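ok trying this again, last paste got cut off
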Amino acid sequence: MNRAIVLMNLGSPDSTEVKDVKRYLDEFLMDERVIDKPWLLRALLVKGIIVPWRASNSAKAYQSIWSEKGSPLIFISKQQRDALKKELGEAVVIAMRYGNPSPKQAYDELLQKNPELEEVVLVPMYPHYAMSSYETAVEYAKEQHKKGSYKFKLTFIKPFYNQPEYLNALGESIKPYLNQAYDQVLFSYHGIPERHILKCDPTKKHCLKVDNCCEVPSEAHNYCYRHQCWTTTKEMVKQLGIPEDKWGFSFQSRLGRDPWLQPYTAKRLEELPKEGVKKLLIVCPAFVSDCLETLEEIAEEGKESFMHAGGEKFELIPCLNVHPLWIETMAKWIREYAAGNTEMLLEM
């Protein structure tokens, strides 16, 4: 089949100028799957309070990680695109949920190069399912596909939090950092409000309602971000042979005052030195590309907080980025799909 691939991630402002950051934050936070409030209340919160208050500080945060190549998320995505294209020998482009390039821009770029395009396989670059990440990316890509009346078929790679190839690539990217003295490996995932977990539970009676819900089998796990993060963590601990007393699990990037998944990374970084954890390794498996949430929130703010609390050594383990095994893993999924294996495809 005449096919092409789109790698889709979160996105980034076009520049570190406050006006561009405002535009980006407005698009991001007005997404009903991110702040799931009625439109009028969401608009009052986002346009009247959050964006005016956060834009300047966010611009400074982006400035601290920006390089001559621009946004790390964007240029790493381009590196992933180029590496996958070389591995597959097929057309590969990138798209972002917020900002540029949009799915429409990606579709149009592919069609300009190949007007006879029959299918696009879109890879949401999120290992775990959440309405504010994987789901919104898929729905937005579908919406732009339908709105543009494109004739090519659109298919999606499903969340891969428990896929052996992904876990192997993640484990191999972490392994070299374990060849040093450390007190703990902290697995920090992007946080989400608890209400998102409840909304995504198709049974409406399992998630956050059953004791040890993440470990009790349920169909809810197909849509449960917390369970999927827990699964990735436990598989990594097992694969890497990390002792039970030398790993932790937390959630970062909390916004607002509503209850989010706990424990909170920011709080744990202040507590750990007091618990005897002086040498910390931290990894962020919710991201496959380093970005603001890893390079600034963790490597800068998080490190400062940990060291100020009495820590002695803090090291961020990079995301998968262009690790050869990660590129090979994505290529393998595409090849297997081309050979008729639909196991990794999202059921539409």
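PB: full thing came through this time. The longest strand covers residues 3-12.
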